[in-house]
Amino acid sequence: MKIAYVLNTYPQPSHSFIRRELHALERQGFSITRLAMRPADVPLVDPGDQAEAERTDYVLAQGIWTLFGALLRRGVQHPGALLRGLGRAWRLGAQAEGLSARLRHLVYLAEAAHVLARCEAEDITHIHAHFGTNAAAVAHLCHAMGGPGYSFTVHGPEEFDAPRALSLGDKIAAARFTVGVSSFGRSQLCRWVGHDIWPKIHVIHCGIEYSRFTDVLPTPENEPLRLVSIGRFVEQKGQMILIPAMQKLCAKHPDSMLHLIGDGPLRPEIEAGIAAAGLSKNVKLTGWLDEKDIRAELDAAHALLMPSFAEGLPMVVMEAMAAARPVVATYIAGTPELVRPGETGWLVPAGDPDALAQAASELAEMSHENRVGMGDAARHRVLARHDVDTEAAKLAHLIQSHQTG
Questions:
Q1: Do residues 302 and 363 both lie within one domain?
Q2: With CB atoms counted within 10 Å of each terminal CB, which end of the chain scores lower, N or C?
Q3: Calpha distance 366→385 (Å, rounded)
Q4: pTM of the full predicted structure?
Q5: Could you tell me if 249 and 162 lie in one domain?
Q6: What is the pLDDT of residues 132-162, one digit of tens each?
Q7: 379 & 395 share domain
Q8: 379 in the same domain as 248
Q9: pLDDT tens for residues 254-295?
Q10: Nearest to 91 by CA among 148, 152, 170
């Protein structure tokens, strides 16, 4: 079965879950054309991401005149389809508000015309997009002009922050089906459509590859406490709150270490905050690492620290748990569906450095045996809920069962 994945920026270091899903579907016999609007704007250090970039076709690389040429040809061949697409693009742009939004959606329409031409040339029968933003808009507009039916996975939190501006309800209603990555995520999607649409909204978890976590190392016995935090350095990930939290933790456990893996626009502020707090010996910034080096960081750590202010369901939490490491995370979005307080880790209020420090201090004072037990429980839970082949099979079933939708 031939399908297309329509994506915005792909691959990205923080979106390895898409790559794993693609590969799992291919193992189940799908032929997948990768159509991304643009390549990553950061260096790709992971060989898996580099290989995916080679397999991906970039729509905007065609040039704006080529894209609008595809739109013009669509209009000549199917004028009614073009009019439907124009009307739909205008409606989406109007809900986003402003002339620039309307013009932006005309560009999306041109991108959709190119995607539609590719689908027709390759006999593609279904489009799946990730995130309810511009990739879903392109899939939606492609379908409006006569292209194949589509579905999309919503992760959050961006979509939950601006559902009206993103016309989330319109995209869900017109889709064959829509996917949330947690029950919380599904509930947020249900808010923007009528009750009759709810059966088309499903939960499919992001998955981990079991084969990558067969050689789990035991939790380190050595002191001092070593923590790791992984994520893009942006406001929603909450890394700035780790600075006062680490100050409080180090007041009780002065040799505690935190490795921050990632990069992003807040890096200068984070570096300045670390220096001002006198934590240069306790907090290390590693930059982006490939999957092998991230795994090495998890193996060397006692736990993952996840201070997010807004999330979907963090992939790094799943990977830490699969590596048999407890998790200290904030009580937001879908995270409580995975992290069980006292069993697989700690859940604390978002934005509360005292609570983060207290949880980390409890971890520091916990016996090695209890740390190991908590890590083992975390591993068992995530492997039971987030196997990538199991989750991809659910997506495959939905795609196959909606071919006439």
A1: yes
A2: C
A3: 27
A4: 0.89
A5: no
A6: 999 999 999 999 999 999 999 999 898 999 9
A7: no
A8: yes
A9: 999 999 999 999 999 999 999 999 999 999 999 989 888 999
A10: 170
